[in-house]
Amino acid sequence: MEKGKKIRKHKKKFIFTIVILLLVVIGLVCYFMFFNNGVFGVKRSYSGGSNYKPIKNPVGGLSDEQAVAKFNEGFVSYLLYSIGASKLHNPPFSSNTPRIVFFIDNDIFNAEVKDGGIIVKKGNINNADIMIMTSKEEGVKMLRDRNYVVKSFSDSKSSFSALTDKLSLLSKGYLDMYNKLTA
Predict the structure, then answer these.
(1) What does the alpha-carbon distance between residue 141 and residue 137 come to, in Å, rounded to a whole number?
(2) pTM higher than the cut 0.85
């Protein structure tokens, strides 16, 4: 009888130890996936390989009026890079890419983030995660002065809205971008 109690006691300790180890492993995996900007410590960044060229600010050398008249996908792309959208990523073990719809005056642009690169096209997109709304004038001001981005959002001259659940936004890395816009 004593032997049976000892075996059960050791079995319980063994199971408890396995459960604790499993929780530690799951915790570490979650930490590296969600809070360390990458999977298992591998940072996500876009280098463009050997063809990497720094992105040039599209408003350089243009007056405000010229920049507003020429506002296109390149302007949206530069703006998204400047607010940290290139750091967005797929949720763990998913191919569900971050998607943003951008309303600028009467124009609609969409952006999809793939491996740190931002692909911007004209038109709407299905299953967008967030929506950003602003005017071309505000966009030009944000492109001219990165510090103005936060002011534009805090003064309600620009806005953003979540179009999906909070868990999806968190798992794709939108929290850092949100904090940057609301700092």
Answers:
(1) 6
(2) no
